[in-house]
Amino acid sequence: MLIVMRAQATEEQIRAVCEKVESLGYRAHSMPGAQRTAIGITGNRGEVESGSLEEMPGVQEVIRVSKPYKLVSRDVKPDNSVIRFPGSPVTIGGADLAIMAGPCGIESLEQSFAIAERVSRAGAQFFRGGAYKPRTSPYSFQGLGEEGLKIMAEIRDRFGMLIVTEAVDYESLELVEKYADMIQIGARNMQNFSLLKRAGRARKPVLLKRGIAATLEEFLMAAEYIMSEGNYNVVLCERGVRTFADHTRNTLDLSVVPAVQRLSHLPIVVDPSHGTGKRNKVTPLSRAAVAVGADGLIIEVHNDPDRALSDGMQSLYPDQFDALMTQVRQIAAVLGRTIPDVPESGVLTGVSRLSNS
Ligand code: PEP
Ligand code: MN
Predict the structure, then answer these.
(1) Which residues line ligand 1 at a C-beta cut-off of 6 Å?
(2) Mutate which of 100, 104, 185 for ligand 1 pocket (most atoms within 8 A of beta carbon)
(3) For the segment 94-119, what is each residue's pLDDT rounded down to a tens digit?
(4) Residue 271: which residues within 8 A CB-CB, separation 6 or more?
(5) What's residue 349's pLDDT?
(6) 2-63 architecture in CATH?
(7) 2-63 matches 83-334 in fold
(8) Domain map of the chain by residue range?
(9) What separation in angstroms does the CA of 300 have from each of 58, 103, 190, 205, 288?
(10) CATH top-level class for 83-334?
(11) CA of residue 128 to ligand 2 center, whole Å
(12) Which atom of ligand 1 is nearest to the CA of 187?
């Protein structure tokens, strides 16, 4: 159920409707839009008695939502969501493309600083890197844990980049929420519903990666789990799905970008690194992702890929990342999108530890 408020509805009228919804035992999600506010109702098992709500001051109409996802839907919010970060001018989902780059895993301070220096200079606003690595083999490098998070916090201080990193369980989510600017939920956890709910109670934006075999509806329902707990700052990420094709690690499904944009107001970025698994395919698929209308890219870059502890085969050399950025800047311009220039100082975002409080 969705309550659409009139364009002229006052804050007080919106609050009164939310209170009424909660008094009926449901949860009210107020979603302000460019034209009007909509209030999504969740927590109802059957039909909500809409009569009394329809009569309240400021209410334009009460609509039944037939789709399984509600809060992620454009029915609730017709205009695109723009995700913001406290103390930073960086956004995801607006005119600027969000560029996230860094190693698969944080291996050491020296490695991370060397990569951060290069990717921030090339224009990446976000530093990516795993401190908790979900690996196919229990004998592979599992990440540095909290030590890795501390290294990333140092990167934020030194380079002014925003930090995005994966949480794999409750315990790591708590720490990621403390140190990072954005919490990544990995493909393998896309349907870990208790973790999604915990991310929904976090106070930082969530980067939700598509499951290895997830349909569009399952992907959107995973985002719905996060939003249903009150965290509306969700960014979707296409990272390839498992198919019969074996010329790439996964098959990057770029058609999901316009499909998501038709159904949902949430931003969607593309990960051509995990999507292809091959270094030589990352740049062409990055160009395609920007051309198809993605809101950003997340790319693995390593200063010494041959010796990387994870995903070296798909990691770009810093010089290749520079070339990629030059190309995608030009493609973005065709679509009226921009990648902010890097100021002389090399510090792009101006974020400080403030955003960590
Ligand atoms: C990653 O970003 O390093 C990662 C493990 O991604 P995914 O969950 O998409 O496999
Ligand atoms: Mn990786």
Answers:
(1) 104, 130, 134, 186-188, 209, 239, 274
(2) 104
(3) 999 999 999 999 999 999 999 999 99
(4) 209, 237, 238, 239, 240, 297, 298, 299
(5) 53
(6) 2-Layer Sandwich (3.30)
(7) no
(8) 2-63, 83-334
(9) 49, 5, 20, 21, 17
(10) alpha beta
(11) 10
(12) 8
